[in-house]
């Protein structure tokens, strides 16, 4: 990106490149020098592409927040404490430059980074003829092991933090507003705004994840591809099956107002919709009192939605879905597709 590349790097460094815990040498050299102080290092990386993972006209402040949040959610699912991150930006060439865009992007990023104690310690920028693309790598630390998706056990209760389906419903509304195929529904503007806020600025459940791991929870993952698809990741990794009671899936007031008893909407949004970035975790019933106390201290609702079952020698499905004690057969797509 010629001279402009260095200017953009300097802008990012000036806005986001401050020090952080364990940062011996941060942005500005060939590589960062970090000190995890004898703890286990946990890392994750995600790439977001305009037109596939987000609309090209997204507010850059919202994009900055979400690009970091979706990666922090992976650390939350492991029970890790985030420390550092790397950011790679592939920016489409354009005459008007990127300085105002980058300032807004940095504002959204910084707001979440500051509240979660994450330091940006390096990255890269490059000009591209393709779409705007962001790759974020996060690094965290863990002191007492991590939560894993292969650690579910028969008899475990299946829990969900927060609520499910808001982002998927908001995405449908966004599709319809742009004249694209989507599932429209009527509702007040405040309802649509609440759903959209959940889609654009998800909250990684870091505090709860660390506390749950310390309390003895061994199995968790973040719900990004849809509840059913992500639960299936746990079941396949653990070699088990599950029962889920659909009516127990937690809904926000905004979503409950428009979903009622419509099983099509239940399937489309909370069951198979994506972008929730809540935690799905499995724990023995004996941990229930401790988990409820943790949830109360984090001001975060948690809901038991089903139970892990022993493996079946000839299973037809990994998840048995019930609606008010009646078994349901729900054919069709089983997870969120990151395609606009």
TrEMBL record:
<protein>
    <recommendedName>
        <fullName>Thiamine-monophosphate kinase</fullName>
        <ecNumber>2.7.4.16</ecNumber>
    </recommendedName>
</protein>
<feature type="domain" description="PurM-like N-terminal">
    <location>
        <begin position="28"/>
        <end position="142"/>
    </location>
</feature>
<feature type="binding site">
    <location>
        <position position="44"/>
    </location>
    <ligand>
        <name>Mg(2+) 4</name>
    </ligand>
</feature>
<comment type="similarity">
    <text>Belongs to the thiamine-monophosphate kinase family.</text>
</comment>
<comment type="pathway">
    <text>Cofactor biosynthesis; thiamine diphosphate biosynthesis; thiamine diphosphate from thiamine phosphate: step 1/1.</text>
</comment>
<dbReference type="InterPro" id="IPR036676">
    <property type="entry name" value="PurM-like_C_sf"/>
</dbReference>
<feature type="binding site">
    <location>
        <position position="124"/>
    </location>
    <ligand>
        <name>Mg(2+) 1</name>
    </ligand>
</feature>
<dbReference type="GO" id="GO:0005524">
    <property type="term" value="F:ATP binding"/>
</dbReference>
<dbReference type="Pfam" id="PF00586">
    <property type="entry name" value="AIRS"/>
</dbReference>
<dbReference type="InterPro" id="IPR016188">
    <property type="entry name" value="PurM-like_N"/>
</dbReference>
<feature type="binding site">
    <location>
        <position position="149"/>
    </location>
    <ligand>
        <name>ATP</name>
    </ligand>
</feature>
<feature type="binding site">
    <location>
        <position position="53"/>
    </location>
    <ligand>
        <name>substrate</name>
    </ligand>
</feature>
<keyword id="KW-0460">Magnesium</keyword>
<dbReference type="GO" id="GO:0000287">
    <property type="term" value="F:magnesium ion binding"/>
</dbReference>
<feature type="binding site">
    <location>
        <position position="275"/>
    </location>
    <ligand>
        <name>substrate</name>
    </ligand>
</feature>
<feature type="binding site">
    <location>
        <position position="74"/>
    </location>
    <ligand>
        <name>Mg(2+) 2</name>
    </ligand>
</feature>
<dbReference type="GO" id="GO:0009030">
    <property type="term" value="F:thiamine-phosphate kinase activity"/>
</dbReference>
<dbReference type="InterPro" id="IPR036921">
    <property type="entry name" value="PurM-like_N_sf"/>
</dbReference>
<dbReference type="InterPro" id="IPR006283">
    <property type="entry name" value="ThiL-like"/>
</dbReference>
<dbReference type="GO" id="GO:0009228">
    <property type="term" value="P:thiamine biosynthetic process"/>
</dbReference>
<feature type="binding site">
    <location>
        <position position="46"/>
    </location>
    <ligand>
        <name>Mg(2+) 1</name>
    </ligand>
</feature>
<feature type="binding site">
    <location>
        <position position="224"/>
    </location>
    <ligand>
        <name>ATP</name>
    </ligand>
</feature>
<keyword id="KW-0808">Transferase</keyword>
<feature type="binding site">
    <location>
        <position position="30"/>
    </location>
    <ligand>
        <name>Mg(2+) 4</name>
    </ligand>
</feature>
<keyword id="KW-0067">ATP-binding</keyword>
<dbReference type="InterPro" id="IPR010918">
    <property type="entry name" value="PurM-like_C_dom"/>
</dbReference>
<feature type="binding site">
    <location>
        <position position="30"/>
    </location>
    <ligand>
        <name>Mg(2+) 3</name>
    </ligand>
</feature>
<feature type="binding site">
    <location>
        <position position="222"/>
    </location>
    <ligand>
        <name>Mg(2+) 3</name>
    </ligand>
</feature>
<keyword id="KW-0418">Kinase</keyword>
<dbReference type="Pfam" id="PF02769">
    <property type="entry name" value="AIRS_C"/>
</dbReference>
<feature type="binding site">
    <location>
        <begin position="123"/>
        <end position="124"/>
    </location>
    <ligand>
        <name>ATP</name>
    </ligand>
</feature>
<feature type="binding site">
    <location>
        <position position="225"/>
    </location>
    <ligand>
        <name>Mg(2+) 5</name>
    </ligand>
</feature>
<feature type="binding site">
    <location>
        <position position="46"/>
    </location>
    <ligand>
        <name>Mg(2+) 2</name>
    </ligand>
</feature>
<feature type="binding site">
    <location>
        <position position="74"/>
    </location>
    <ligand>
        <name>Mg(2+) 4</name>
    </ligand>
</feature>
<keyword id="KW-0784">Thiamine biosynthesis</keyword>
<dbReference type="GO" id="GO:0009229">
    <property type="term" value="P:thiamine diphosphate biosynthetic process"/>
</dbReference>
<keyword id="KW-0547">Nucleotide-binding</keyword>
<feature type="binding site">
    <location>
        <position position="74"/>
    </location>
    <ligand>
        <name>Mg(2+) 3</name>
    </ligand>
</feature>
<feature type="domain" description="PurM-like C-terminal">
    <location>
        <begin position="153"/>
        <end position="311"/>
    </location>
</feature>
<keyword id="KW-0479">Metal-binding</keyword>
<comment type="function">
    <text>Catalyzes the ATP-dependent phosphorylation of thiamine-monophosphate (TMP) to form thiamine-pyrophosphate (TPP), the active form of vitamin B1.</text>
</comment>
